[in-house]
Amino acid sequence: MKRIQVLPLGNLPARTLAELCGGLAEVFGGRCEILRAEPAPARAFNVSRQQYSSTEILAGLAGREIPKASRLVAVTPSDLYVPVLTFVFGEAQLEGPCAVVSTCRLRQEFYGLPADAGLEGRRLLKEAVHELGHTFGLAHCENYECVMAPSHAVEWIDLKSSTFCAVCRRGLLC
Ligand SMILES: [Zn+2]
Ligand SMILES: [Zn+2]
Which residues are within 8 A (CB) of 37 and not within 5 positions of it... i.e. 6 or more apart? Predict the structure, then answer.
């Protein structure tokens, strides 16, 4: 059985976290627990970009005790980047155990639109499942409805489902 830990980095609504955890438990057919919130690590903050380095956050998570066969997904309201890109929705250690996702650009307000908690919750679940999929050994998928399809804009996230296609599901490491 897959065990997933959700680590809030910064302030996130309890309901957002609870819904994410419920969704992850369902998709992976395992258990999910929410860890105590921590501040996003200051050393991952890039002052000139006003964003956090997702790679630095993952490096900081590498020292944690993570139970055997478990995966950890950090969730932060802060905007994330990797040096070659303007932003990323998230990043994962391939065959990890750790991943990180940001809610910043999943929010409708980011694009000047009215808030839509339901839509944002679905986006967050998809991005968390996607990054956790990488930690379970999956690469990107060409099936645009598969959660492992790459997303470079929210419109792409909205196109895909929150679950794995049959090919990816077979490829999930135990
Ligand atoms: Zn990916
Ligand atoms: Zn797939």
Answer: 7, 8, 9, 10, 11, 12
From the list 91, 120, 127, 131, the catalytic residue is 131
Catalytic residue status for 131? yes
pLDDT in tens, 87-134: 999 999 976 799 999 999 999 999 999 999 999 999 999 999 999 999
Amino acid 2 reads: K
Phi-psi region of 120 (alpha: psi -120 to 50; beta: other; left: phi over 0): alpha
User: What residues have CB less than 8 Å from 164, skipping those under 6 apart?
Assistant: 27, 129, 133, 138, 146, 147, 148, 172
Scanning the structure block, which residue is given the tokens 């998230």? 90
pTM of the predicted protein model: 0.96
